[in-house]
Structures are given as C-alpha cells and as structure tokens.
Specification:
This protein is of the alpha/beta class. Residues 40-193 form the Chitobiase/beta-hexosaminidases N-terminal domain.
Length: 841
Amino acid sequence: MSHLFRNGLLGAAALLATTALVPAFPAYATTQGQLDSFANAFGYKLTVVPDAAGTSFDTRLDLTLPKTLPDSGWALYFGSVAAIDVRKVVSGPFDLTHVNGDNYRLTPKAGAALKGGATYAVVMAGASRSEYLAMPNAYIAVEGLTPRIIAATRPVFDPASKLEALPFVTPFTDEKTAKSGPADATEWLTPERAFVLNASRAVTQARPEIVILPTPVSAKHLEGKVLNLAAGIRLSLTGLTPADITVALAASHLRQAAGGVPVSITVNGKGAAESYHLLAQDDKIVITAADAAGAAYALESLSQQAAFEHNRLKPIEITDAPRFGFRGLHIDVARNFHSKAFILSTLDRMAEYKLNRLHLHLGDDEGWRLAIKGLPELTDIGGHRCHDLKEDTCLMPQLGAGPQGNPTVDGYLTRADYIEIVRAATARHIEVIPSFDMPGHSRAAVRSMEARYRRLMAEGKPEAANEFRLQDPDDTTVYDSIQHYNDNTLNVCIPSTYHFIETVIDDIRAMHDEAGTPLKIYHIGADETAGAWTNSPACQALVKAKGLDPAHMTPYFITEVSQILGRKGLEPAGWSDGMGHVKPEEMPKAVQSNSWGGLFAGGVAEAYRHANRGWDVVMSTPEVLYFDMPYAPDPKERGMDWASRGIDVFKVFAFMPENLPANATVMTDIQNHGRTIADSEPLAAGRRITGMQAQLWSEGVRTDGIAEYLFYPRVLAMAERAWHTGAWEPAYVSGKSYTYGDGQVNDAQLRADWQGFSDRLTPRLAELDRDGVQYRLPAPGARITGGIFEANLAYADLAIQYRPKGGKWTTYTGAVEVRGPVDTRSVAPDGRRYSRIVTVR
C-alpha cells in the first residue's frame, strides 16, 4: 500500500555537500548529555528538487551537523514509507542502509572526515507529492546511550486549525510535483480551481425542511399543529426493553418527562431488518420497528429533526429502511495505535449515522494491539516500539514512532478494554469484527513469538518455546513484502502456526462471550502475501506429502483457516485479492469478501465474480472508500496517495456501489483521465453487493485528531450511500459499459441531491463541534478577478473569513474589492476552529 519512489540516479555532484570535507573538530568522550545536545542542535531538512535530467523529482535530505561532533560512532535512523533504492542514493560521506520496513539507517562512512557546522546533502531518487508523507521523529543512536530524537524532526500543531505540521519539510512550490509522469493530468486543487469546481456542483434551490442524515426512504411533513418536544417525551415500549434504546436516548436531544409528548415504540419483527415507521401527529408519536436497531434509528431521526426545529416539531411521517445490511467502518489500530476513547467516540458517531459494523484491524507488521491470554509477548513486545536492535523488549521503531516509543502511536487494548468496546458497540446495535492480518502483514506476531521462543529456550523449555513459533527456523527464503519487510509472513506449513491462530480466535471468542455478544465474523486479512516459503523445508515436505502447488500456498492457508472458523460456527472474511484465489467449493458456505480492487484495475469484475460465488461482498473500493487518502491533490493535504490523489466528500457521495461500471461516468482514474469501465463479468441474476465499508489505514495517522480529520465529514457521505439509494443512480444492467462524461448518470439530479446533502451537513458538523471532534473544515475556493475577491465552499453552510496579507480577519458576505494577495479560511460552526489558510493573488 506504499507509494514507491521512482528509480533514477542523480548525477549532479553540486548537490552533494554545501561544504567540502575537512577534518573534524577534536573528538571527545560522548556522554548522554552531549548526545542530547547533538540531537537538539542537529539540522534536518527535507526538500523536493528537480532530478539531474530535469524531467522528474528527487528528495534531498540536508543534514547540518552541530559544531561539536560525538567521539563515538553514531547513526541516524529515519522512516520512509516510500521505498528507497539505497544503491541509487547520492550520499556523500554517509552510507544508507535499509533496516526493515520503512526504517533506514544513515551512518558516516569509515574514515569520513565530517566538519562540525557543515551541511551535507543526501539525495534519493523519487519524491512524494505531499508535505505530509515524510516521517517525523528521526533520531540519533550511539551504542551504550539512550537514543534521542532530532529536535528539528518533531511535529508541531497549529493552534488555529489544530492540524499537525512537519516543519522540517520544505513547502512545495512547483506544481510539476503533482504529476507522477508525463501522462499524469493531475493538477493541484488551487483556491482558484476549487472555486470553479465548487460552483459547478452548487445548485440554487430551496433549503431542505427535513434534515435527517442519512436520508430516509420517505419523509414528509403533514398537516396539523406542532408537537412541543421542549416539554420532553413520555415513552411506552412493546417488544423491546429500555436497554435497547438507552444509548440512543442518551445521545439524542430528547429528554424524558412525565408530562411530555407520548411516544409509543413497538418492535413487531415485520419488514426489513433495521427498518422503522414514525408518525408524529395529533400530540403523539408512534414508532413501529422491525427490531431494536430500527427503533434506535427512529429515535435518532426524530432527534435530528426535532433539534433542527428547536423542539417545535411539525407533524411528520417517516418510512425508512437501509440499503445495505452491512454498513461499516474499518479502523487500523495496528500501524499506529488509536485509543480506546477514540474507538468509543467513533461508535457514538456510527450510531448517529446508522452504521452497524466496526472492523478493528488489530494486528499488522508494525504492531499487535490486543492482549491474548497466555501470550503476553504479543502486547509486551508487539504493542511497543523502541530502539532495540534484537527486538527482545519491543519492535524497532517504524512510521516515525521515535526511539523510546510514543503513547499516541504505541499501546494496546487490554481484555477489559476490548470487552468494554464490544459492549458499547452492542448497545449501539453495532457488530465488532476483529482482524489480525495473516499470513503476510504479520511481523509483530512473528517477532513477538520469536522473542517468546528465545526466552523459553533460555529457561530450558524447548517444547514450550516451539508451541507457538510462527517461522520455520530452517527457511532460507529471501523475500520483500509490499511494505518492504523481509520477515513478516507466517509459515503456513507448520502446525504451530495454526495452533497460534486457534488460540487467538478462541480467546477473542471468550472475550465476546464475556461481553454478552457472541463473535460471528473473523477477518483473516489474507492480502498482499509476499513470495515466502520457497526454501522452507517444512513447506517442501508439506507440498510433497499433500500434492500441493508450491506457488499457491496462500490459498491453502486461507482455506485451512476458513475451515477452522467454519467448524467454530464463524464466518470467515478477508480482502478480495487473497480470497479470490481459493476454491469456493472448499470454503464454508458463508464467506465475506472485502472488495478492494481498483475500479479501473479489474476491481469491478472481481467484486461481481465473488458475489456470483454466493459470498457476501462488501465494497471497500480504495479510490473512494480509503479515507487515509487525501481530500484533494494538494501538497498540504495529508494522506497516502497510491490509490487516489483526492477523495473529497462529493466523490464519496457520488459513489454507486450497486452499479460499479457506472462510476466511470463521474470519476477519473488516478492520473485524472476519464476512462471506460466495461461490465466484463456481470452479476448473475439474484446476486447483489451486500455492503459498504470505509477504511482508515494508519501508516501516517499518528494521533486521534488526525484520524478524525480524515474520517469526518467523509463518513457522513459514506453513511448516506450505504443507507440511501440516490434517485440519480442508474439501475444495474448486465453487461452495460460506461465512459466518463457519457451522460448516463443524471447530472442535474446528482447535483440537486448533493446540494441537499451539503445543506444538511451543517447541523451535523455543529454536533461534531459539540463533541470535540476535529473533523476537516473545507479550505475555501477563492479567486480575485479584476480586483474583486470571491469565495465559496465545497460543502456545508459555514462562515468564510478573509484578510489582506498582514491584515485582520473579516467575515466574507459577498464579492468585495481587494488590493494584493488575500488569505482565506472557513470557520467551524462553534467559531473555535478554522480550516487551513489558502492564499489567492
């Protein structure tokens, strides 16, 4: 999932060092205090520069050495999620070594004479397209001393926007950096271009009188007098218990009172799951729901509308049911940890937006985040990162974690934490789906169990040491995973691997049972497995004994684990690339496939192929639903960009999950070209997509606040599409193809629906303000034409402020005459937070 640096060797000797090599200052015996001073004074600057041919870009790391240098040998460790070809680095007096994953080590060459106070350049082929893809917290290590972060590489936070900034990254100024090559048509979304784009999507129409999100199937105001909900409501329940709606009531704007408006809620088991009917008229409210979830959703809808009408509710009738039974969010807490408080807060938001699945990604290469009974090393070691080359006490730092670990990126959920999360989810009618990615993406587990092995062998307990070992010690296979690890894959041919997996699954089941909610689905992961095991004697023996295909051992593993899950009464789930290679007849009857193939890269055919197998297919499309991607192609928008250069709220809103080829009409590919999507493997009669899930991978998500910025408000658009079918969505026709701009999606209907959604966003953003959620505020579109400044927003009815350079902020009320450059920003409904500032000239 990493953006890969382009290969290429820089030949410009002038970029090597700004100061010639001369003998170093007199050496001294390095102490901890001196190392601390060295790290604090060390200069570190990352700049994107043209390559030697002037046709592409490279990354130059400028290192300014303090005037006093350590006596002892020192090493600089830094992270890069983009692969660096160390053979093609122009490094002057330094050697660059790839440690593992995103971890690199820079050391002075033997005999190199470094000069204190000098600046040296290390030039690496290729460059990122965002100022936020660099990893912070580079550090200096000297043997025998505590490593220290280079102070210049620490992130800072802007008090106005609350956004993280990386001061060691030189701001990008050349728009050519937006392109991956000559054929790339991507342009930065400048304020001027954003203004035109925003205006093209806006529609002049009456503001909606019903503001419920996601949109109900049917909602209409009726004749009659208003219901005074300021006096509260008085509940009567049939077919459900107060516990079924306790959380929904507590989160609502409604309060119970003996003299309040009578509200009767009946669960009758009729109709579609999670459906409800609400009639508010004649001084009473009658709710009929298919189940307890439907009853809770009815109260959420009532609360949203009542708050909008200031508790003077006009008579209203709502008939509602979800589009999909699976409406999920995926949170990666493995790469960088996210707190229990963040997860619980996310559950609150999910309940408000009628989402019902939380997929917790708990284990990956960079971390194992759930305590498992009897295997303390998984979290004692796999849950923490520090500078331990042997990894006896922790994993080596990855993703900018720093040498002592960091409480915002390290940690794990205790059993009590997880049980609390499951109970909280159940109270909100949300199912928790745990996931530990296997057999690849498993380095944290592998290294933790190797540490366990070494400990028990040292204690003279070889049988116990081997019980949960995940590697064949005689395996000499050399491989490189997609995230550049050489030791991150479970050995699928040894019994201890499956014993380990069953132990983990059984303990998670026990936690769910203790929480009072049985485990139903377990997500295997099963994606992006490296070419491992070729030289594993255990695998060679298994292949020979069972007549297996040595090139297809990952499907063997997936099938074996799926059968284990099936015997336990659990539905196996996995990412579509791995699941696609198994033999369906060898799998359990119920299987879930998360479709993450690209829309323009065969993902449509793959999704329909898996649906035709009778599997539950949950659309997890990267170009639309990977919320770790940036909102826009702008160097100041954070996010990975391998799948999309920009996923704005409109793009999520316009996604058509049940007619996948139709997305070609309204979306371009990653290089901003319009293309055709052919329905090459049509859905069979009676088959359909069964759900949607938005993903937040956490390689660059180092705080809960960054996670919130990337999630919201895109989650609301995702919830809208997962619950409600737009009138503008063309019905699926088997075999029908679509091409960008072909007019087969009703543009006028789409824009009108979008405008209504945008108008209804503002109350939801105000709720996020109330709950302290650091959602993304849209940077204004703006332009100056003939000295007249104009501004608009991509979504929501928010205040816009502007100022001349060096002037005071003024609220924008319409086109205004200005002189010179103008800064502009949007303002949160509560006035306490601002978007990033953009400047027009």
